[in-house]
Each structure stands twice: as C-alpha cells, then as structure tokens.
C-alpha cells in the first residue's frame, strides 16, 4: 500500500484522503493523521468511502493540514 495523505481539507474537522474502496478503507474505520513536520498525531474516523478517496472527520484536537500522512488502523474481525 502506498502512503495515504490528506488531499483536501474541507473545514477544521473534515477532510479527504487519497484512498477508498480500492485501498480497502471502510466506513467507520479509525485512522491516525501524522504531521511530518511536528511530532503529533490526530485520531480520525472515516465517514464516507468512495472508489478512490474517503471523507474523514478529525477526532483529535490538533490541526490537520494538506499533505499530512494517514495511517489506517487495523480492523478487528
């Protein structure tokens, strides 16, 4: 899997990532948003999934930026 990143920030809490059904991202899945310039991360949750991208909502308190790296959490089965 390639590095997943934020491709568009809609508002302070909602953003698009460049992965979707093709990358096996699922709705309600939790992801971590890592900022490469600073040593912090946010937790976010996928709210809608499309073929090539997904819409997510930030749950953490740190700001998110275009280009931040996203790391999906494993799904419990």
From TrEMBL:
Which species? Staphylococcus debuckii
Q: Which domain of life is it from?
A: Bacteria
Task: Give the protein name, as stated in the record.
Answer: MBL fold metallo-hydrolase
């Amino acid at each position: 899997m390639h590095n997943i990143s934020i491709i568009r920030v809609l508002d302070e809490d909602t953003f698009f990532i460049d992965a979707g059904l093709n990358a096996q991202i699922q709705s309600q899945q939790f992801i971590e948003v890592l900022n490469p310039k600073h040593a912090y991360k946010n937790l976010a949750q996928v709210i809608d999934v499309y073929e090539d991208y997904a819409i997510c909502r930030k749950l953490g308190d740190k700001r998110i930026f275009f280009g931040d790296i996203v790391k999906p959490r494993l799904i419990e089965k």
